[in-house]
Amino acid sequence: MIFKRDFYRQNAVIVARKLLGSYLVHQSPEGKTVGRIVETEAYLGKDDPASHAYRGKTRRNAVMFGPPGHAYIYFTYGMHYCFNVVTGKNGVGEAALIRALEPLEGLELIKQRRKTVNVYQLCSGPAKLVQAMGITPDLNGSDLTSGPLQIFTAGIDNEKIEIITAPRIGISQAQDLPLRFYIKGNSYISH
DNA sequence: GACCAGATTGTCT
DNA sequence: GACAATCTGGTCA
Question: For residues A118 and A154, what is the distance between their CA atoms, to the nearest angstrom?
Fold first, then answer.
């Protein structure tokens, strides 16, 4: 089952946690790739100093302030892109960052894009999975409930997942907030 | 395995 | 002009 708009309308922490175990599917021109989401982070709105939304709406982060359930893809460090899911009520500026996937379908295409064959190196980081899945900046703002990029629920299995909560990675503000979530014991997470 | 520097450019102050 | 929600490849152990 695909996640519907109402799912994304919840706050970023809930969405980030419930995305664990679900399936990210990209139907690209080169082929279909599927990955199971195993690590996420929550970025809140104006009260979270580490969030792009902290200083209000700008051209770059405008998508975060739009309707939930859309893709927010941003460019950073001069060479990398990261993929987020916009969450919360329209206008609050929250998002869930997808940090790692367990690659499931389209392995050959993924290996080709990533230029490595080590399965643990394919999607173990936000910029890596963007490259592995063939996610491009033109998908910024695209609707995850109807576009080429979609997310499907893991079904009732998701209830059994043991979630580890930890501080977020790679930020210089609000480093103590426990807003990173990953599946306990999973081999495909970053780090 | 841990630690460190370099890459490289859009965006905001 | 500074810096960034990162990755890779190097060194040293």
Answer: 25
